[in-house]
Amino acid sequence: MKKKNLKIHKIIFFFLAFFVFFSLLPFTIAADKEEERAQLEKELKELEELILKYDKDITKTEAEKQTLQYQISNIRRKIDQLNLQIRQSNLVIQSLGLKIQDTEKSIMETTIKIGEMEEKLIDILRITEEEDKKSYIEIILQGETISDFFDNIVYLEVLNLKNKGVLKDIKDLKFNLEGHKISLDGEKDSLQKTVQLQALQVKESEAARKKQEDFLKMTEAQYQQYLKEKQELEKKAEEIRSKMLELVGIPDVETPTFGEALEVARWVQQLTGVRPAFLLAIITQESALGRNVGQCYLKDASTGSSVGINSGRIFSNGIHPTRDLPPFLILTKELGRNSLSTPISCPVIGIPGYGGAMGPAQFIPSTWNLYKSRLTNMLGRIADPWKINDSFLASGLLLSDNLSSSSNNERTAALKYFAGGNWNKSSYAFYGNQIVQRINCLQVFIDQGTMTDTCSGLIFIPS
After folding, report:
1. CA distance 269 to 95
2. Half-sphere exposure of 133 toward its Cβ, with a 13 Å CA cutoff?
3. Measured between alpha carbons, how far is 265 from 263 in angstroms, rounded to an integer?
4. Which of 64, 105, 387, 438 is the most exposed place for a label (fewest CB within 10 A)?
5. Model confidence over 46-87: pLDDT tens digits?
């Protein structure tokens, strides 16, 4: 009997232990998920800090590259300038060489003339001396008159003086030519020395250029290494973000609860920096937190006309036929969705333009295409604009870009979200004003857990 009771007690104990174990299991799993998520957040933060450091290193290295490229360009310009100067100097040296040859030829010709003139003067002097030595008897015997004799003497003296004058001019010419040759030789020597100096400068500049180019190659290699390492870190960070997305645990529902939507918005903040109140204000304005993602279906895949889901009304301007229809058809095919039964926004009656906006974030297909690759890289799969997580992230990325181009002005960023390049039209001011109201309401609710009736109407029963 005791053994039987003992056996019963063992069975009861086993079932109690089993019950306790499985009742505590969800809490254990939840705790493990929180711990894993906290660890991933820590690791992500460390990676983001490393990526920021790499950004600074890349910026610094890029500046160094630009400096080296500028220095190399300057050295190349200097080398080109020196080569032109050398070429110019060599042409002048060639010209001087020709002038020196001409001058040497002139000096030689002048020297010959001087020799000829000197010989003539010697002959004149000899004749004059012979005439001076003649006696009266010789003059009479030769049949010359005294008058003829003296005429000859005077003629010879005049000729001698003229020859002496010409000889002096020729000697002066030779002296000048020799001086000119000395000047040309000096100028040629000076230019040759300048060319040699410039050639040395070219050699030094080439060495400096080669050294700078070697530095540039090293810097470029370091720059590419930084880029590669940064890309690896970014890839790892994306993997962690994707894992964190899985840990968020938001079910794939069309209309999330406010708590679920807030959890996703907080996750988006980690990726984009957009505060949850701002993101939720936009999603609330666009689709009532995912409750209204469009009241039309595409009717004609060739014209872009749409039809009201409930009203049956046909809209010829359902979706822009060239801008948005082709990417819409491609996207729905990629996602395995039926393009004719996937909800899109209807055109606004009375306002020119098209419908075709998709999902909770209400992106038109052409705008979604702009963010498609970024979303795919971050999520690790093709992004779906009708899914809560994907649409919230897409909205966060667009708002982050708009904030960057709007000096972090949330109202302006919201208007750009709504109207693109036409954001500053006065007719769209209502949109910006409503977003600001919703942001304020949501921030108070997130911080304090309270909400006025007015705010409740704006958030949970949006107009």
Report:
1. 78
2. 6
3. 5
4. 105
5. 777 887 777 777 787 778 768 877 778 877 787 887 787 777
